Amino acid sequence: METLKPLERVNIKKAAKILLKSKNTIVLTGAGISTESGIPDFRGENGIWEKYKPEIYGNIQSFLKDPSKFWKMAEEIAPNLFNALPNSGHLALAELEKMKLIKAIVTQNIDELHQKAGAVIVYEVHGNINRFSCLGCRASYTKQQILNKLKKEKGSTPQCDYCTAPLRPSVVLFGENLPNFEKFMSIDLAKKSEVMLIAGSSLTVAPICDLPVYTLKGGGKLIIVNDQPTFLDEKAEIVINNKTGTVLPLIVEEIKRIKIKREIESNQ
Ligand SMILES: [Zn+2]
Questions:
Q1: Could you give the C-alpha distances from 224 to 29, 54, 55, 142, 228, in angstroms and in order?
Q2: Which of 239, 252, 257, 267 lies in the 20 to 30 Å Cα band around 28?
């Protein structure tokens, strides 16, 4: 607890109380929750988009013209991304789900770390790295198959075994729309939610940064846990500018403490 300021400790207790009281909480997560798992923020300082310009390496039009650039970048980041493990922040959110205190996790991340941590209802608005598909015949490939292809055919674009067309990831590339189901589901959840817990998102990427605005408009509250300020800090009920891997487990701990206390009191 030594990295926490006194106000942060107070806010952790407040957040725990709000989450316990709320009947409809959803979570929104961004890159910040995964940096502690060794996945650098693509948009951050020294992030992948600084080295590889997104309009060349991550854009759908350039991908269709020449997928080799995307795959050159992917070869560098894939092993780290595929093998990353969930951290205490992901585990804490999965625990909140088990305790039935959150309805869903909406994430901007493609790394599947929420699922690896045990969370079940996860809406991945930017897709994920679990599946890859052929641009020609739509055959589908697992990430292990892709890793094997990248290892075997170093420096080349992974091709379909059946029709030799290039393969693409099931992530949303620049210039592409968000998947409809995830998009409408997350907007609907945001509108109805009593509380939105924002963890590790700087709320800079559209249209996801609008989700908390729907919650506010519907009379809901925001709890923001992020190590950097966001444009909605002033409108949030609680803001804790610290690491999600530190703060989220402490919120869960506090919730458990309150529950035990209430149980003892009700038995007296
Ligand atoms: Zn094919």
A1: 10, 28, 30, 35, 10
A2: 257
123 CA distance to ligand 1 centroid (A)?
A: 27
Q: Which residue has the higher pLDDT, 125 or 52?
A: 125
Alpha-helical (H) ranges within 22-87 are 48-51, 54-57, 60-65, 67-83
State in Å: Cα 136 to ligand 1 middle.
5
- Is residue 126 part of the annotated active site? The answer reads yes
| 190 vs 153, higher pLDDT | 190
d(CA 146, CA 169): 10
> In the numeric block, which tokens belong to residue 31?
């890159």
Domains annotated for the chain, with CATH where assigned, are 1-39+87-124+178-268 (3.40.50.1220), 40-83+133-168 (3.30.1600.10)
**How remote is the CA of residue 140 from the centroid of ligand 1, in Å?**
8
- In the numeric block, which tokens belong to residue 225? 């846990």
User: How much of the chain is helix, strand and coil, in % rounded to 5?
Assistant: 50, 15, 35
Q: How many residues are recorded in the chain?
A: 268
CA–CA gap between residue 73 and residue 69 (Å, rounded): 7
Structure tokens at 9: 């400790």
Tokens of 79: 């092993």
Asked if 198 and 244 count as a contact pair (C-beta separation under 8 A), the reply is: no
Average confidence (pLDDT) over 144-169: 89
Annotated catalytic residue within 90, 126, 143, 149: 126
